[in-house]
Amino acid sequence: MTRPTAAVPKPPDSAASAASAARSGPGGLLLWCLCDNAGRIAIAVIGGLLYQLALIGLPWCVERAVDQGITVDDPPATLRWAGVIAAVSVAAALGEIVLGWQSTVSATLTGNRLYLRLADRIGVLDEAALDRYGEGDLSMRGTRDVDLMRTWLMGFASFVTGVVGFTVMIIAILGLDPLLAVVGLACVPPLVLINTVLFPKWFGAANADLSAAHGARADAVEELLSASAAVRGLGGERALVERHDERSSHVTRHTLVTARVSASWAAASPFVPGLAIGVGLAVGGLAVLRDDMSIGGIVAFTSWMSMLVLWVGVLTLRLSQLSQARTAARRLVEVFATEPALAGPTNPAPLPVTGDLVADGVAVRREGRTILAPTSLTARPGELVALTGPMASGKTTLLRVLAHLSAPSEGTVRYGAVPLHQAAPDELRARVAYVPQRPVTVSGTLADNLRLGGEFSDEELREACRLAALDDYLAERPDGLETPLGEGGNTLSGGQSQRLALARALLRNPSVLLLDDVTSAVDTETEKAIVERLTSRRDGLTVVFATHRPAVLAAADRVITLEHAAAPAATDEERVSAGG
Ligand SMILES: Nc1ncnc2c1ncn2[C@@H]1O[C@H](COP(=O)(O)OP(=O)(O)OP(=O)(O)O)[C@@H](O)[C@H]1O
Questions:
Q1: Would you state the torsion angle of the CA atoms of residues 52, 53, 56, 59, taken in this order, to the nearest 10 degrees?
Q2: Global pTM?
Q3: Domains (ranges, CATH) in the chain?
Q4: What pLDDT score was predicted for residue 232?
């Protein structure tokens, strides 16, 4: 394996658009969704208009057919009008197909892009930035919230055409009879009040509570699934089940509140035009008796008003979807607006391929407590530096600072004379690899877990397994690199997953390897093999190894012993108890 060159992977290109969506808030994100597939939405609106106009035209045709088409002296007129009505029905069907098809395709494509943007954003956030979200809550944002946006988008064209249809219909009624038009228009103010002021406010508030409850419940499910097996013997699963039950009851309560508001909204809107039909029938009926209006006219009026009842129902549904989408957009924008806790510099300094890793008076305080007392160390290319000390003395904390996964409260860390906070994050990741105490294994094969999206040949995978002393495991498996590891890698022993994580880090050919007690679960023979293979490399790999194990301490060029933060702070030299 050769040392990495200066080339580093580019960050996802959607980061910029995610940031711009965040800047313009939920409204900006909704607008972005509409613009993303504007062409298809426009075609859907055209299809929807054809559908609506054909539907509005039908009662008008029926009116003409009743008044002019059914006459004794002109039988062909009846057939003509029947043909016109059939043609209008075909136009309505075609329009509906275009509306439905294009709306579904555009909403699906945009929904997928939105999901990918969210996944990209989560991918660039570090642990500290993601700490404010629970894992379940975050997955709810990527599923339920994206789905709510998709549902709103799917109905958007039908909403636009519904509004246009509503307006055209009122104009049509106006042409029929001014008094009936007054009855139709009288519906508008109460409908506006119900659909844009009263219910969106109640429904929006209820839906925001429901989304938060879903997020909290998803966190509890996540804990129940991932932690209950570990605490079963201790009876701890009861507490997790109870927490899940409590959060589920919140979801139920908020679902009922939302359903109550939604049902009242759905009933209140069509009630208004329904009432107007009664009034219009009385007004129109009296006009017919006075001979001021034809029977066909009153048929057209009642048909249009019945249609209006249906449309108001549909528009109400679309408005409630908009209200849900606004809540979802707010939750998604929160994630887009989240910045990495350790944001990269605007003008990063280039990192050399090789150099000393130097910590200078690094200390960490959390919640008012010092968890790492001021510490200095130098690890030169090719050195194995062991880090030891009592439990909770800050070994992991120091390694995470050396990897720039968390920031020190005081002091600096430099690699090749460049302070870590001035380096580009991707370049830093390519130089410095951190293997945690409890490594993560994903579902998939051994090769999937080693590659994790990187491009490496099978030969390189085998060599990394050899260096990490995972070659015995590989040799024993008939499927070799393609051996499935089970869900979350649950077929591996603790020691095997530690060695897998070590192999994964070695594969990336870092200049510095930070190992957090990665031999704690392996036997002494295997540990000896790992240490020998790491130290026999002649390519200048620097290893900083947090450990209590005698074999590692014996092989180290230098041992640095940390004290508890409460103990008086010591200098680097005072702590060096072995080697250089
Ligand atoms: N994010 C955090 N917030 C608050 N305290 C923390 C945080 N991370 C670690 N600590 C505390 O800092 C102290 C040092 O933890 P650390 O894991 O660095 O010790 P360690 O020497 O690696 O321990 P061990 O040998 O048991 O692995 C502990 O008391 C721990 O509880």
A1: -130
A2: 0.64
A3: 15-337 (1.20.1560.10), 357-579 (3.40.50.300)
A4: 62
